[in-house]
Amino acid sequence: MTGALKTSIATVSISGxxxxxxxxxxxxxxxxxxxxxxxxxxxxxxxxxVGRLVRDHGLEITLFQPFRDFETLPExxxxxxxxxxxxxxxxxxELGTDLVLVCSSVHPASLGGIERAVDDFHELGERxxxxxxxxxxxxxxxxRHINDHRDAWEVVRRADHPNIGxxxxxxxxxxxxxxxxxxxxxxxxxxxxxxxxxxxxxxxxLLYWSRHFRNMPGEGDLDVARxxxxxxxxxxxxPISLEIFNDQFRGSxxxxxxxxxxxxxxxxxxxxxxxxxxxxxxxxxxxxxxxPKGFSFVEFATRGAEAANLKTDLTSLGFEQVGHHRxxxxxxxxxGDIRIVVNEETSGHAASSWNARGTCVCDLGLxxxxxxxxxxRASALGAEVFEQTVGAGELAIPAVRGLSGSVLHFLDDSxxxxxxxxxxxxxxxxxxxxxxxxxxxxxxxxxYEDMLSWSLFYTTLFDMSKAPMVDVIDPDGxxxxxxxxxxxxxxxxxxxxxxxxxxxAGSFLSDxxxxxxxxxxxxxxxxxxxxxxxxARGFETLPISPNYYDDLAARFxxxxxxxxxxxxxxxxxxxxxxxxxxxxxxxSFSGSLFIEIVQRNQGYTGYGAPNAxxxxxxxxxxxxxxxxxxx
Length: 631
Ligand code: MG
Ligand code: MG
What we know:
631 residues; alpha/beta; TIM Barrel; 3 domains; 24% strand
């Protein structure tokens, strides 16, 4: 049995100078790096110094790359290519790495011809062998003559040289829709290296797509897991390396991107092991993805007059306080299965959240199949376990830090955790209130560049998947929205990425210093009945433009009474595939949040995305009318 699989990442995948990259890569937990010549050309050190610097970080140089336009050239270009190779070999020896990637030629003068390529590689293999170096041949998807890993393998097979092997790259195979299962026929010891990248499905030139839009496995739409299963089926046990060219990552925090990369790789290998248990995937075991069963609670950090406002708002929404924490300044408010914790503590996590952001959602609780397993899996995926002193009468609830400082708690049906509300809050009732039954979804707002991080966080930890990304038109810019949803529909989170601070989502982000929950949607079985009850409690819905209802009458076959009712109560409507959806919004809510009330009929699965521009316009109109300054 060999050691655990080595994880690696190409330095080009993240931003920063070489030293910053090495620090981020080490902190994320990788074993090695693929190094690009540009990395040390820009560094002050010699290749020898750079090699030492890498090893001082505890990292290994798994690959040197790339060597381009080598094979099937006519003389004199052919001899020059061999000379270039020798100079690369010198650098590799100084760096202290034995493997170089040779990508298939795009040189206009390259002649092609498999035997010519075989002869060139055999000869280069001889030269590399003299120095104890190895060469891996990679078929670029846009290679001039070789653009398919099967053809590259045929060259390697015929070259029949111990120092010549194949490099496979998921992007080059999957972007051309080649069947990854064709890799299964290749002997694992002839695959010298494996590079992984995902990408969103966009119709565009392959080269441009590859150089700008690659992303981490699981962040895009390619079936990287199936590719990786095929690789592991060969018996391959070399490094698994991320080679991600992405414009956004080049401008992002290298630590976050490296951490996401490691998370994606560890999650992917776990998927591979589960998909084909007979494969030997030598990685530490972790619990399977957790099946979510619903949101267990939402906790607000608040204080003083803001706390009083929050409680008034909750009351007008039909909530009642059903318990008070035994030892903390925290109340439990409930309606149906919705639990809101109002935390007014002056020390600890909630207090620091309030200090930084004012009233905001500081914690989320998720009910799942196994709370402890959720925390263990999250930690195996690189999440930071959250620990806070457990006071008298309190339970140790497994929790991790989510992104932007939020805390995610895990609850389950086990004997002690299922009793947390009785144990900590002596709560025993679940008032029906105005008919709000459960949390339908939570909307988190973030900068566009954080969207991939958040969706990766949810989809690697839970049995959740991504819905297609939609563009929401804010009058002042574009907001991209992507839902991540539990396969069983019990938990839905919408991730909204804002580019411009002038959008509603963007101004929320800048006003709230990165707090993420912007709205919470509560479900009801009868939105009109619920809104009537809420109106009696002084609740006001967001007024929607009358034009919206004229348009609705034109778009859908709805009776006039229903439309009048919707207009009177500020209800928006959507319909897809015979399933319909009603939604209404609060005029405002504590902090910079707002609340949505939804009714899903016939298994409607969306979020009323076509209504978002009208809702946003109405919110902006209202805030201008109230003279609330908009940043
Ligand atoms: Mg590659
Ligand atoms: Mg919503």
